[in-house]
Structure formats: structure tokens, C-alpha cells
Design a protein that fits this description.
OB fold (Dihydrolipoamide Acetyltransferase, E2P), Elongation Factor Tu (Ef-tu), domain 3, about 350 residues, about 45% strand, 23 strands, alpha+beta, 3 domains, twelve-stranded antiparallel beta sheet, five-stranded antiparallel beta sheet, 5 helices, conserved putative lor/sdh protein from methanococcus maripaludis s2 fold, rod-shaped
């Protein structure tokens, strides 16, 4: 629909502003001409341009620790936890004592080690006196070293059936299933989990309808409720090829540096993807659109004093830009200031 009218300023409100407050009579044609010139001087236009449409996709995401930088400690023996030396979320160093376990199984091994140590000492003494052969000495030493190596698998030997369990790496305790007095068995759930959080994974959920808009290597912006004024930049490092059977989504992985430890495991985040649709559309500022009677319109200037109303069909929006599917041509001068006033006048409202 196109309405084409020579624009004349006859609005009473504008006329009152510019008319004299006294009783002097003025020529109406002169007065209207002045008002018209002042109004037209304040009308601004921008040319409709042809550009690729930007598309923004919002995905929900969650912070996870890097599975390549995490250690789960599972007890290799059955016993009772004597005490623990850590809490959930603690920073720990490699080799730091985490807990003590008392085990009857290890007590027996400790006794065997004590006997093997004595046998070795005796064998060394007897070998010096040439009472036993070199082979017998080597056998005694091998038996002792084997028992020592076996016991080291369980932790630091404290004697009396007690072993100290050390942290195998530096990092943070991200899971704890151990408490003093509780019993443990071989193969139970991990007693604790330590993760290096200097690098984390952001796992974003992609629904089937959005899959065509997401590609590996795409840049993303990440925001979190905990940091409302910060935007973190990253890229999609990998896309799963299998839908999660429970959530019915495809998972995208974003590897993020986390030296400041702002990202915490299980933290919810918002992932924004920007993509260009490989087809050009007419683009105009969104605030120039006029929504009336369930349709969108724009006002264009065909000359400094001639305006038209055009109905347009929208392709989409991105931030402050709207993309037009039809109704507007590249290079047309779209009114971006006072368009509502002109529209109302042309429509006779």
C-alpha cells in the first residue's frame, strides 16, 4: 500500500507555537509557510541499505571442569576413615594429606613388610659374611621392594593398619564423599575429586531447530548472573554428533581460560551466538517502524517536501536493526525523525 501526498503543515498545535501571542493579524499563507519550513528542517532521513542479516541465538549453558584435568580418588581397600583434612571447595596441593584410613587388610601387609625388611637386613649381613649367595640377597631385596611398592599404592604407610591418602594433583576439591568414622569398600564411589579449574568447559544446549545456525569455530559471548556487567568471549571448540537422550539437545563445548576462577563448576551461563544469514536484505533502524492495524509501515521522502507511506514485510530483527523482506528498496530515504507526525497527517488522523 502506498499513499503519496504533498505534505502541508496545518497542525493546530504547531501553528499555536509559532503564531503571535498578540492580536496582530498575520497572513495565513506566510505563517503556514514559515511553520512548514521549520518543521521540514527538523525532518531527518536515512537511506535504506542492503546488508547481510545478522542472527543472534541465545543458548543456555553450564560450567563444567575439564575432564582432562580432574582426578577421582576411589579407595583400593576396605576400611574405616579415621579422619579427613579437607572440605568441599578447598584448594589443595599435590601430595597434601587428604584423609587417613584404617584397614585390617593393610595391617596384614604392613606386618609382611616388617618381616621382609628384617629378612633383608639379615640377608645383607649374611652376604657380607659370605654365608649366602648374591642370588639369595637379590631375592630378599626384591621381596621387600615388591611389598613396599604394593603398600605405596594405598597411600603413605603410617603403621598400625593406618594409611594416609594424598592428593594426586593440585587443584580444588569439587566433590567429597568421605567423613570420619564412615566405612569404605574397594570400588565404592570416589571419596573425593580434585580438579584444576584454570581451564573450564562451558557446555551449551542446542535444540534441533537451532542446529543449522550453530557451527564449530563460531565466536560466542558468555554472560553470567554473578557478573552482570561482564561479557566473556570464546568460541565453539566442538559439537557433539549425538543428541543427549534425556535432555533432547546437542551439546556444544566452549573451552575457557579461568585463571581468575570466575567460572565455578555447575554455574549457569547464557551463551550468545552471532551469525550472518548468507542472503542480503534491506536494513533500517528498528525505531523508524510504525506499527498500525497489525501491520508495519515506514515513511519515506521522495523529495524534501513529498512523503509516502509504505507498508513493509519484516524478515527479522537484530539489536537496533530491522531487516525488510519486501516493501522497501535500497537507497530510499526513510524518515527517522518526526515520522509519526508525518504518518498521522498523511493518514488523516
Amino acid at each position: 500500500m502506498i499513499n503519496k501526498v504533498y505534505f502541508s503543515i496545518i497542525l493546530a498545535g504547531i501553528a499555536i507555537i509559532f503564531s503571535s501571542c498578540g492580536n496582530n493579524k498575520t497572513d495565513n499563507s506566510v505563517e503556514n509557510s514559515i511553520i512548514k519550513q521549520v518543521f521540514l528542517a527538523n525532518v531527518k532521513t536515512e537511506k535504506a541499505t542492503l546488508s547481510y542479516q545478522e542472527h543472534e541465538l541465545i543458548l543456555s549453558g553450564k560450567v563444567e571442569y575439564d575432564p582432562n584435568k580432574v582426578v577421582y580418588y576411589t579407595s583400593l581397600i576396605s576400611g574405616v576413615i579415621e579422619r579427613t583434612n579437607f572440605s568441599l571447595g578447598d584448594r589443595v596441593n599435590k601430595g597434601q594429606t587428604m584423609l587417613h584410613i584404617r584397614s585390617a587388610e593393610l595391617s596384614s601387609l604392613q606386618s609382611e613388610l616388617t618381616i621382609a625388611q628384617r629378612n633383608l637386613q639379615s640377608a645383607e649381613s649374611m652376604h657380607e659374611d659370605k654365608l649366602i649367595s648374591e642370588r639369595e640377597l637379590i631375592e630378599a631385596r626384591s621381596n621387600y621392594e615388591k611389598l613396599q611398592a604394593d603398600l605405596s599404592l594405598y597411600g603413605e604407610n603410617k603403621g598400625g593398619g593406618i594409611f594416609a591418602i594424598k592428593s594426586p594433583m593440585a587443584g580444588f576439591v569439587v566433590d567429597k564423599n568421605a567423613s570420619a568414622g564412615s566405612t569404605v569398600s574397594e570400588g565404592d564411589a570416589p571419596l573425593f575429586t580434585v580438579a584444576d579449574l584454570n581451564t573450564v568447559w562451558i557446555i551449551a544446549n542446542i535444540y534441533a531447530g537451532d542446529l543449522q545456525s550453530v557451527k564449530q569455530g563460531m565466536p560466542v559471548e558468555i554472560t553470567a548472573l554473578a557478573y552482570p556487567n561482564e561479557v566473556f568471549s570464546g568460541k565453539i571448540d566442538a559439537l557433539s554428533q549425538v543428541f543427549d537422550p534425556e535432555e533432547k539437545v546437542l551439546k556444544a563445548r566452549i573451552v575457557m581460560s579461568n585463571n581468575e576462577l570466575k567460572f565455578k563448576p555447575e554455574m549457569s551461563v547464557v551463551v550468545k551466538l552471532k551469525n550472518e544469514i548468507h542472503q542480503k536484505y534491506i536494513s533500517i533502524p528498528s525505531d523508524v517502524l510504525i506499527f498500525d492495524d497489525n501491520k508495519y509501515f515506514v515513511v519515506i521522502a521522495t523529495s524534501p517536501e513529498i512523503f509516502e507511506i509504505k507498508e513493509v514485510q519484516l524478515q527479522g530483527h537484530h539489536q537496533k536493526t530491522s531487516y525488510i523482506a519486501s516493501g522497501l528498496s535500497e537507497g530510499e530515504n526513510v524518515v527517522v525523525k518526526n515520522q509519526l507526525l508525518i504518518y498521522s497527517e498523511l493518514k488523516g488522523k
